[in-house]
Amino acid sequence: MERLPGFRDFYPEPLPDPNAWSADLRRHVFDAWRDSARRYGFREYDGPPLETLELYTAKSGAEIVGQLYNFTDKGGREVTLRPEMTPTLARMAGAHDRQYRKPLKWFTIPQLFRYERQQKGRLREHFQFNADIIGEKAAAADAELMALLIDSLRALGLTRADFMLRLSSRNAWQEFFNRRCADAAKAYDFYQAIDKLEREAPAVSESRLVALGFSLDEVRAFIAAGQPTEELQRILDDLAMRGLADFVKVDYGVIRGLAYYTGPVFEAFDCQGEFRAIAGGGRYDNLVQLVSNGKVDLPALGFGMGDVVLTELLKARGLSPKNVARLDAFVLIEDESLRPDSLKLLQTLRDAGLAADYPLVAAKSDKQFKRALEANATHTVRLERSAAGSMMARIKQLAARTEEVVSVTEVVRALQ
Amino acid sequence: MERLPGFRDFYPEPLPDPNAWSADLRRHVFDAWRDSARRYGFREYDGPPLETLELYTAKSGAEIVGQLYNFTDKGGREVTLRPEMTPTLARMAGAHDRQYRKPLKWFTIPQLFRYERQQKGRLREHFQFNADIIGEKAAAADAELMALLIDSLRALGLTRADFMLRLSSRNAWQEFFNRRCADAAKAYDFYQAIDKLEREAPAVSESRLVALGFSLDEVRAFIAAGQPTEELQRILDDLAMRGLADFVKVDYGVIRGLAYYTGPVFEAFDCQGEFRAIAGGGRYDNLVQLVSNGKVDLPALGFGMGDVVLTELLKARGLSPKNVARLDAFVLIEDESLRPDSLKLLQTLRDAGLAADYPLVAAKSDKQFKRALEANATHTVRLERSAAGSMMARIKQLAARTEEVVSVTEVVRALQ
Questions:
Q1: Fold adopted by B329-415
Q2: For residues A326-350, average pLDDT
Q3: Taking CA atoms, which of A125, A227, A324, B12 is between 20 and 30 Å from A3?
Q4: Which of B43, B49, B136 sits opposite A325 (nearest CB)?
Q5: What interface predicted TM-score (ipTM) does this complex get?
């Protein structure tokens, strides 16, 4: 039996085939994300992987349904596997608005789902680091969020040579739009045209823009000028105070596709231009109000960073760690009469917090040693009786190829 | 908009209401599970939350569909949110049998799903720690797996006074059955009757058993005798070598409901008898062969431990940790002219791996301090200019109420 198309299995390393996804690399990425969030004072939350379809159609309209992994459940409810986390967050924050002091700084690492019928071979799920700040209008919040994004990528070993953030503004584009067009109903289509500029042939973009009353040249001139608005300048100044100015440039070529963004928006991208955007986010000051049916009105902003592009980038830059899983000790049992004492020692090691393994059944010496090497053990430990008849432990450090013989009570200390 | 019935939101502590689920407690449990698996040399894997319906009906028959969160996807496939992890593991291990040396020791922490139409208020999802050993027939593997289960519970602060394992054997029940009944087709119904003994009225059990040709008395006598089989005795001896004998007793009242178990089976339960089983597992030596359509034949065993009963038990025993999220430093900014230097310091602290937060916008002194307390900060740090004009940092340790003033370059060291 096969797994469903577009879904992934995650295997322990060494991987069974070069195209398999690594559970160890995923763990490495999740740990870096979580630790970065901790350093920034963000708190973890989570919601259900399944939500009502209405949670997404309310803000994005019915056309989004074509991309959702939605279905009718056995109770007749219209439901969907979550395509993104922001509506869930808005629902949760809206439901308990009064119980939490603002601003909230929250993060989560959900698995997200899309179903696009026509695109075969494309993944239908991915994991995404989501960090959001709720309840603060000031540009300081945008800077804090972007700083977290920068440091999450640095925590994985990526540097300024590998990635940058492009900072843009829905407000700047809104002004651009308002100066030239009085029909607010066209704004969404205009944003979509800007969002597609870098991915479409110029002729296609031009015809989209002309149909809306704009020219490709004036749009390109606005992007090329790249003058930061006051709002963006405040963000840049804040990041400069942190020593992170080098990681950000203003680039109005970014606008972000989602309908609900309201202010500054940004993307992280790889400097060599090989990959799709690594992460993206921005302000969505109206969404909490929309999702809470007007009960709670809170400014908010957030970003999402997926695991797929990021792990491709880490592998391309040689930043995928090797042999992350490690045993502190492999307990060799060459004399089966020592199995009871060896199991007792094993338990002592594990009780002390050490990672320890052993041969479940009697096995030849060289087979046991091979297993210790495969398990990436730093030491082997073998019990033996001294000439005087007392029980001793022979500890071999595998990298240094050094050996020592200690009493059984000294093994934990010798391994630490 | 509301979340779907039977699904949970996980909030950061302090919780917005007493019935809310804690993301911090969930993290505490996941960390203990993962660290226990690491100490035992188990490697992490994961599969898709959505699988083909066939993966489950192949081994359990069509009647299981009534309990599944299944649906037809947009591509016309019969799919289901995974109700358990074992078939996915058997599928994954079967697909790459030759690439991994046996035995495999693998773990995962999936979210699992059930849909039972009639039971309102019951959860439709939970998280489950799954650990499995694949490719070893010897009783040593059963003992190793049960030792991991015991130590996973001890890692959360539970002791022998809180929980025990009941060890039973499908083989022992099979023999019991074979001695009295020649119709193998009745065996599954007989196991189901044994499984329900403790949850049903005696009269109901009696009529079930009599219909199959057994009496309640002979079944009860067999359970009361509780003689360990040779196979179970080997497991008990192995656990005794580890010093874990006290945590296990033979109890044929356990049989486990799932059809695919083949040998020893076990459950962890709370000693006060307040909760449903904390965990359960056993051998399923035929499942890998079944799921791989006969291509791979590997003995296997595993357990699952859900988060719901476990967190209820931890809370009931006072073992739910308080204030797990912690800031190393809250940087107070009382003089806004010091904001640039304060942000620089903040970045230095975070770069050093410390968890640090600060006021995003200008705020009154007491409000900032309150925020530091709410965030469970161990220290506040405030920049100030010395009389000589140099920049100093005043560090307050909040628990001890002690203060020191150090130079800006000394702050990281003072906080570590």
A1: Rossmann fold (3.40.50)
A2: 97
A3: A324
A4: B43
A5: 0.95
